[in-house]
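Data availability (excerpt). The following record was deposited with the supplementary files.
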Amino acid sequence: MLKLYGTSKSRAARSILALEELGLAYEHAPFGKELREPNSEQRKRLNSLNPNGHVPVLEHDGFLIWESMAINLYLAETFQSILWPADSRSRGQILQWSFWAQTEMDRKDWGSAHRSDDAGALREMTDAKTITLSILDHALASRNYLPGDSFTFADLNVASTLSQPNEDGKIDWQRLDPSESGLVHLATWLQRCTSRDSWQRVASYE
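Predicted structure:
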């Protein structure tokens, strides 16, 4: 029995996409706006599942795991598929790009700039983000996917970090179009990823 807690309009989308790509049967508990109320039943339930009080949380036959990237890597290891290659070097590259997405894209300072009204800070953040994304663009110059010619958990984890299913194939809340910044390889790859059936299905979820 698999149950995923968290709305598809959050980082939980990354793990919902993983479940969809693996073709697994699961229950989805969106846990959305009610979480803002400190005494709501959803908030109490989530706090009992995750001491950090954040979504997503995956429940698998009584086992609980939180943090979306950890959930995805757990699913990859538990439910073997072509998305999780057998050789250690390919898996190492999947881990490399997955951690890159966490450390280089999910940055607290960029989140702070997002929440501010400081136009200068927003411009600096956008410029820094474009420079960081150029690393990914360069890596994709000679290949269709990370780390090769087939879609893997590397692509799922990185693409879902850049563009949740509710973000229409654009990057983050800013809805950045990488092609407009000259990141043509990244733009083609991201369109390829976000056009997959899983992204289209999850875009309609709560």
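Summary of structural features: The mean pLDDT is 93.
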